[in-house]
Write a structure and sequence with these properties.
Layout (H helix, E strand, L loop, with lengths): L2 H7 L3 E3 L8 E2 L10 E3 L8 H10 L4 E4 L9 E3 L3 H12 L8 E6 L4 H14 L4 E4 L4 E3 L2 E3 L8 H13 L4 E5 L2 H5 L10 E4 L7 H4 L2 H9 L10 E4 L3 H9 L4 E5 L6 E8 L3 E7 L2 E7 L4 H16 L4 H9 L8 E5 L2 E6 L4 H12 L6 E5 L9 H12 L2 E4 L9 H9 L7 E3 L3 H11 L5 E5 L6 E4 L2 E4 L2 H9 L1
Parallel strand pairs: 2-3, 3-4, 4-5, 6-10, 6-11, 7-10, 11-12, 12-13, 13-14, 18-22, 19-20, 19-22, 20-21
Antiparallel strand pairs: 1-5, 7-8, 8-9, 14-15, 15-16, 17-18, 23-24
Length: 472
């Protein structure tokens, strides 16, 4: 593809020869042969150095916000991050135009909602795809994704493959980071879901208002055609009140277009759905009131796109989500593995686990390093409040001191029903050894992750494998 095509797509000005490019890159350290390097600029960014590195590694041209004194063709733009998304869409031929794409955003519930939507649409005979925290799933293939929302060059390559596979619907997790960094600027979504907004990622956003604004930015006329909003969420209510796009609401507590009745928690969930006056019953292996909300979101999206209630019910009957409230049982003891890694997520998880606890609730969890430090003590308080015993352990400490993270969690706890065991495998082992008939063990924070990130190294580790080693 010619640089002039990219320049036109990103509303830029081309300086230099109109060369052919063979891809896009944002990492100057990687091989760049014939690629265009997107140069982000900021207070801590040495643009000149990164461009020289990219050129040395084979870059053909750059996209930049300021013309640089470097002998390489340049496309100068007003916003390099927005240009990154626009350039990726141009390079891969705008595959989003040939599929209906639904974004799911929120602090918790994105993965469950988006993943279940794919299952429901598949059940109804539609060809669907999922892109998110777990992986990319389409046409019988699964590809690993390193980010909840892939970077634009990765995302649009995936969408191009999905178009070639004749995918009709794509369900995409849209993280707050992706929205803030304009990764999705070149997509106008056919619908967007807001699950909830609770504390998370304040290490990046600084305050809840900025974090919530990143989520809310999705629900504008420029970004999506329809909002599907949780009416029980504070930010959701704000969107519903001020929306400039059509919205459909769902919820359990506040009046909503789609709501649940007669919820029964027994070996999963059974409840009646009223979907804009279409009434049907859902019975699922999923647990917890928060999963009633997730299912209502799924029903709302599916109903809007004409999926039959029978397909919704059939798909959800035995559907589970990797690393999301996965239940294991042995000799009267139950164990739950879940991805919950925020204060609100942990609270909802533990309350749901209590619903099936006949004796004690034993919790194993930690907090990630280099992330919002303010939530650590709060999560300690929640774990202590709802658990009979807590093992504080590692959860991707990254470059932070492991004991300092654990100590920050412990600082929020008042009682002695706790123990710091930094070795996560040993913590799970001790929890299993402590458990007796009627107990429930909750292992929170990592879900289906396949690694532990310590000091810049990703070490193979999986909660399920460790649990099965000592429990089953």
């Amino acid at each position: 593809m010619k640089l002039s095509n990219i320049s036109k797509a990103v509303n830029g000005k081309l300086f230099g020869d109109d060369l052919e490019i063979a891809g896009l890159s944002i990492d100057s350290r990687l091989p760049q042969k014939d690629k265009i390097f997107i140069c982000f600029q900021g207070k801590r960014t040495n643009s000149q150095k990164f461009v020289l590195d990219a050129k040395a590694n084979g870059a053909t041209a750059i996209i930049t916000e300021n013309k640089l004194s470097v002998d390489i063709p340049q496309i100068v733009v007003g916003d390099a991050r927005k240009a990154y998304s626009l350039a990726a869409a141009e390079y891969y031929g705008y595959p989003q135009k040939d599929m209906k794409i639904v974004a799911v955003t929120g602090t918790n519930g994105k993965t469950t909602t988006a993943y279940l939507l794919k299952k429901v649409f598949d059940e109804d005979g539609k060809k669907a795809a999922y892109i998110g925290t777990l992986f990319a799933d389409y046409d019988g293939k699964r590809e690993e994704t390193s980010l909840t929302t892939p970077d634009p060059d990765v995302l649009f390559e995936l969408l191009s493959k999905m178009k070639q596979a004749k995918v009709e619907y794509v369900f995409l997790e849209a993280s707050a980071h992706a929205l803030y960094l304009k990764k999705l600027e070149s997509i106008v979504f056919d619908a967007a879901v807001l699950t909830n907004v609770t504390r998370d990622h304040l290490d990046f956003f600084g305050d809840m208002e900025t974090y919530a604004d990143a989520k809310k930015s999705l629900f504008t006329q420029e970004r999506t055609k329809l909002g599907i909003i949780n009416a029980d969420d504070r930010v959701g209510l704000e969107i519903l009140k001020h929306a400039e796009i059509p919205c459909v609401s769902y919820g359990l507590l506040n009046p909503a277009d789609v709501f649940a009745l007669d919820v029964v928690h027994d070996h999963g969930l059974t409840f009646t759905v009223n979907m804009c006056d279409v009434v049907f019953t859902i019975s699922t292996v999923l647990y917890g009131s928060y999963n009633v909300e997730n299912v209502l979101a799924v029903c709302t999206v599916a109903g809007y796109f004409g999926v039959k209630p029978s397909s919704i019910a059939a798909a959800l009957k035995n559907a589970d989500v990797p690393g999301r409230f996965n239940v294991y049982e042995n000799k009267g003891v139950k164990a739950v593995i879940d991805y919950a890694h925020t204060a609100d997520g942990l609270k909802k998880l533990l309350l749901s686990a209590l619903d099936m606890t006949k004796n004690r609730l034993i919790t194993v969890f930690g907090c990630g390093g280099e992330r919002d430090k303010g939530k650590r003590a709060a999560m300690g308080r929640i774990a202590e409040k709802y658990s009979d015993y807590v093992f504080i352990t590692n959860d991707n400490p990254r470059s932070e001191n492991q004991y300092e993270i654990a100590a920050a969690i412990e600082a929020g706890m008042l009682e002695d029903r706790k123990k710091i065991v930094l070795d996560r495998e040993e913590a799970i082992k001790q929890a299993v050894e402590m458990a007796v008939e009627g107990d429930v063990i909750v292992i929170a924070g990592k879900g289906s992750e396949q690694y532990m990130e310590i000091a810049g190294e990703k070490i193979p580790f999986q909660d399920e494998a460790v649990l099965k080693k000592y429990f089953l």
